């Protein structure tokens, strides 16, 4: 008799790190010269239950059975795999494990929060949802989740990624989503940006602002993919599954690593392990080209470029920062989630930043060893894994290293091809 243990491993509750932070999280607030309340604006554009969960201090939030069934339907729990071939290739005594979020239908972790947000919106009678997307993974997850609950979706995709990743655009359209290259002429903010610079490459902050304005003007609902802590709450299924899977392996990771755009995949993977943080190292990995960890400030800032959302205290390069058009589009964001920012500030979480040539080499090493082509975003985490594994080799330590492979890179092959051509010159 075959025993299906998936339901046992899949958690029944989301984990909320807010009550377990070392200090109270600074609350969101309106700017001092506010002409309108940004917090009231959230009530107009976000599903009510999503907004309630954003501000909850409950340590555990029950996952609706409909959402759990949806998680099972998309293949959760995702596998926790040992990268033995990578260990052998590096000659390290360390054990390396990775949580493979690329195993979901949309190819990344993003559907873990898109699905519940769409579910809560549908329960409130919403017929149309709107969002932004950088590399396309989040937009893909929203388009699929909206179609699963018989809703329409509109996605504002950062222009440089819209042009670099036409396959992502096609998948969103196959799922029934409308996709626009941001900045657009559909919104007042988009028209303002284009008037100033008709060839603007776009940014996640701009696309976010356009999505919010579009949702507000049309009485649609806005779904948030990262940065706000409710997204990290939903993503905690990753880390909680990993805890159960490591227990089955009889292992306990010493080092936990994830890449950071806004912070949802890192937080979703690492935060459930923070309760037993004694002796553990947590490493958040960003882009050298988007230097928010090394050059950002821990201040109150707007999550979106137009300043429509409330100010939150976070590590940020500033809402007006224009990121360069790197291939890891999901990391082209000016800030980091408030909870992660606080943990970085308190030095409970360490950080690294790597350049495109470095992450390309790491992606190539991983693909040769394990056969999986990682997303460029995930390759940043892999570079940190390789560094830690080689450090363990040098010091003769048998560490257990775990990282979140947040998505596969099969739709990033044109970008990898361009990197290969550029680096071969």
UniProtKB/TrEMBL annotation:
The modification N6-(pyridoxal phosphate)lysine is found at residue 110. The keyword Manganese does not apply. Pathway: Amino-acid biosynthesis; L-tryptophan biosynthesis; L-tryptophan from chorismate: step 5/5. Coiled coil: none annotated. Residues 75-407 form the Tryptophan synthase beta chain-like PALP domain. Pfam families: PALP. Its cofactor is pyridoxal 5'-phosphate. GO terms for cellular component: cytoplasm. InterPro entries: Trp_synth_b-like (IPR006316), Trp_synth_b_CS (IPR006653), Trp_synth_beta (IPR006654), Trp_synth_beta/beta-like (IPR023026), TrpB-like_PALP (IPR001926), TrpB-like_PALP_sf (IPR036052). Its EC number is 4.2.1.20. GO terms for molecular function: L-serine hydro-lyase (adding indole, L-tryptophan-forming) activity; pyridoxal phosphate binding; tryptophan synthase activity. It comes from the Archaea. It catalyses: (1S,2R)-1-C-(indol-3-yl)glycerol 3-phosphate + L-serine = D-glyceraldehyde 3-phosphate + L-tryptophan + H2O. It is an enzyme of class 4 (lyase). The keyword Amino-acid biosynthesis applies. Keywords: Amino-acid biosynthesis, Aromatic amino acid biosynthesis, Lyase, Pyridoxal phosphate, Tryptophan biosynthesis. Tetramer of two alpha and two beta chains. Belongs to the TrpB family. The beta subunit is responsible for the synthesis of L-tryptophan from indole and L-serine. This is Tryptophan synthase beta chain. The lineage of its organism: Archaea, Thermoproteota, Thermoprotei, Sulfolobales, Sulfolobaceae.
């Amino acid at each position: 008799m075959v025993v299906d243990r998936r339901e046992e491993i899949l958690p029944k509750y989301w984990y909320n790190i807010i009550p377990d932070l070392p200090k109270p999280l600074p609350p969101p607030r309106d700017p001092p010269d506010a002409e309108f309340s940004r917090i009231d604006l959230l009530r107009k554009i976000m599903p009510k239950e999503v907004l309630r969960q954003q501000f909850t201090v409950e340590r555990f939030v029950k996952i609706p059975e409909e959402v759990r069934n949806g998680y099972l339907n998309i293949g959760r729990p995702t596998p926790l795999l040992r990268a033995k071939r990578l260990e052998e290739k590096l000659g390290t005594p360390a054990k390396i494990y990775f949580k493979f979020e690329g195993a979901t239908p949309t190819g990344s972790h993003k559907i873990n929060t898109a699905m519940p947000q769409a579910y809560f919106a549908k329960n409130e009678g919403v017929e149309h949802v709107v969002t932004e997307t950088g590399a396309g993974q989040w937009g893909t997850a929203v388009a699929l989740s909206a179609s699963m609950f018989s809703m329409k979706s509109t996605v504002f995709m950062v222009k440089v990624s819209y042009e670099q990743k036409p396959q992502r655009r096609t998948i969103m359209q196959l799922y029934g989503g409308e996709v626009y290259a941001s900045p657009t002429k559909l919104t007042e903010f988009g028209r303002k940006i284009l008037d100033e610079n008709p060839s603007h490459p776009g940014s996640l902050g701009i696309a976010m602002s356009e999505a919010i304005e579009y949702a507000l003007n049309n009485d649609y609902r806005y779904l948030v993919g990262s940065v706000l802590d409710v997204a990290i709450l939903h993503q905690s299924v990753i880390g909680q599954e990993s805890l159960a899977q490591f227990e089955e392996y009889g292992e306990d990771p010493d080092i936990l690593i994830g890449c950071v755009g806004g912070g949802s995949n890192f937080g979703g993977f690492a935060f459930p392990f923070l309760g037993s943080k004694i002796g553990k190292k947590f490493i958040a990995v960003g882009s050298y080209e988007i230097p928010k960890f090394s050059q950002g400030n821990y201040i109150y800032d707007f999550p979106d470029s137009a300043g429509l959302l409330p100010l939150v205290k976070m590590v940020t390069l500033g809402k007006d920062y224009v990121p360069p058009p790197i291939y890891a589009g999901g990391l082209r964001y000016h800030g980091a989630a408030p909870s992660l920012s606080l943990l970085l500030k308190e030095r409970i979480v360490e950080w690294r930043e790597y350049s495109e040539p470095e992450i390309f080499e790491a992606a190539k090493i991983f693909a040769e060893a394990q056969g999986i082509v990682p997303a460029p975003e995930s390759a940043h985490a892999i570079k940190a894994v390789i560094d830690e594994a080689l450090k363990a080799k040098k010091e003769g330590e048998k560490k257990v290293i775990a990282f979140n492979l947040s998505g596969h890179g099969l739709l990033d092959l044109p970008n990898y091809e361009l990197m290969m051509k550029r680096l071969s010159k």
